[in-house]
Design brief:
- By secondary structure, this protein is mostly helical.
- The protein is built from 4 helices and no strands.
- The chain is extended.
Length: 139
Amino acid sequence: MAKPKKDDTSEEAKKIVDDAKNFIEKAISDIGKTSATKQLILGTASGWVTGFITMKIGKLAAVGIGGGVILMHIASQKGYIDINWDKINKRVDKITDKIEKETTGKSPDWFEKVLLFVKDNSYYSAGFTGGFFFGIASS
């Protein structure tokens, strides 16, 4: 079986991303055309699912990362590994500076889109917010 070329793979990935983006845009535009009751129900359901999944993933990530840090610390204390914490702290500082620079440059456009969506679909947004907190509480 022949390996696909890199160009073919990147074109397929771009097509998948474009299809997903078009699907999401269509779904969001269709929400605004429905009744207030349907928007509230859809918002509540999708908010609950999002909150529930967020809490499950968050707990799993916290256990994984926390457990890894604890194991590294124990291994360091026992002498199995030697960790250069100064180098790690410098690299983390560089990465956080880079992330902060990227997010501050792009966040106004994203935030304006969110505000416009919330204003146009107030019932859905209210339902989503309530459902999100129900999802967090029920996980």
